[in-house]
Design brief:
With 293 residues, the chain is α/β, with parallel strands linked by helices. It has 13 helices and nine strands.
């Protein structure tokens, strides 16, 4: 029998991911806050559901791709309350590992298999099916959804439930910090009288090379700040990491600076722009982030 899939959340990432499920031949039921976002999917053969409850009642696997922890908690309780025992719930959002583990326990008490599978790769990776997928699940549960997950990219089993969220948290620590460092390096290069484009080109041939320097560095030089990945969402992810570090009494000074840089971006009204906008007026943001005037 063909696996019936439900998809909840059709934002910048969710919409192209759901489209890939449909293109792969899975019967698909979708819902999101604004039905207009589902128009193309419905034209292509997806079924609409008015609520998450209705989705959960109709499918074998529910996928959620939502903005923040409270969204996943609210929708997750609805899904778990309606799903049949044996249903798989795969959350591909980025949320608190602690909150997720509580949801896993709640789902298990109702016979629902909850799997965390947050992703990295941005809108382009979602469109092209090239996402990195970090999975927290038991081995048998991972195998049950592995083929479906390959629709989106490359799934890697990290460990037990919650481990996927921990891996994504670490990804966001590195990503946010590196975006800030690339912005700083290009700003210092330009202020020093060097061509920042040529500096970037040279650095891509050495140990400083990274996908962020390559891709986001180019966007900074082009002043291309369209999302991508909104600064408000990047700040949310940094907040998750800082909360986790505080809970564990682990220092995270670089991540704290990343958070303050993003606070500066958001306070000047650029929260909806891609987080590479930190490059614009970087010097002033850096002063604010480090306590300067």
């Amino acid at each position: 029998m063909t696996t019936r899939v439900g998809f909840i959340g059709l934002g910048v990432m969710g919409a192209p991911m759901a489209a890939r499920v449909l293109a792969a031949g899975y019967p698909l039921t979708v819902t999101t806050r604004t039905r207009d976002r589902a128009a193309q999917l419905l034209d292509d053969g997806a079924a609409w559901a008015d609520t998450a409850t209705e989705v959960a009642e109709k499918v074998d696997v529910v996928i959620t791709m939502l903005p923040d922890t409270p969204d996943v908690e609210a929708v997750g309780h609805e899904v778990v309350g309606a799903a049949n025992a044996g249903t798989y719930w795969v959350d591909m959002s980025t949320i608190s590992p602690t909150a997720w583990r509580e949801l896993v326990e709640h789902a298990a008490s109702r016979g629902v298999h909850a799997i965390d599978a947050p992703v990295s790769g941005g809108e382009k990776g979602a469109i092209n099916g090239e996402l990195t997928i970090m999975v927290g699940a038991g081995p048998d549960h991972f195998q049950a959804v592995r083929v479906l997950l390959t629709t989106f990219g490359r799934p890697t089993l990290i460990g037990d439930p919650g481990a996927g969220q921990i891996a994504k948290m670490c990804n966001q620590i590195i990503t946010a910090g590196t975006i800030g460092l690339v912005a700083e390096a290009l700003t210092v290069a330009e202020a020093s009288g060097a061509d920042p484009g040529r500096v970037r080109e040279a650095l891509l041939g050495g140990f400083a090379a990274s996908r962020i320097l390559e891709t986001h560095g180019a966007r900074m030089l082009d002043r291309d700040y369209e999302p991508g990945f909104q600064s408000t969402l990047r700040r949310k992810d940094v907040g998750i990491a800082l909360d986790q570090a505080a809970r564990l009494a682990v220092g995270a000074p670089f991540t704290a600076v990343s958070g303050r840089l993003l606070d500066g971006v958001i306070s000047r009204g650029d929260g909806a722009r891609d987080s590479v906008v930190v490059h614009r007026d970087y010097g002033r943001l850096a002063q604010l982030a480090t306590g300067g005037k």
